[in-house]
Amino acid sequence: MFTTDSGTPLRSANFRRKVWLPAIAEIGQDRLRPHDLRHTCASLLIAADAHPRHIKEHLGHSSIRVTMDVYGHLYEDSKDEIAERLDRKRSAR
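User: That's the sequence. What structure does it adopt?
Assistant: Structure tokens below.
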């Protein structure tokens, strides 16, 4: 994903020292980890109403269960919305 100036793969330790640490220092988020960006990505996908199967594929999880076990709590706010949709469908009959 990241390469050196000569185009060779950037080793993890070098990425951390040369890219990651300067970047997070510049934005004042010294405790931010690369893995935190993965959680942010999942949260944004859920907020955009992405289907859990698409999130699973995007993140490379082994199963939908893994996705839902880790991120299922982010769907809690949708319970009322789902109930409202069901009521609208029932009323439309």
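The chain has a mean pLDDT of 90.
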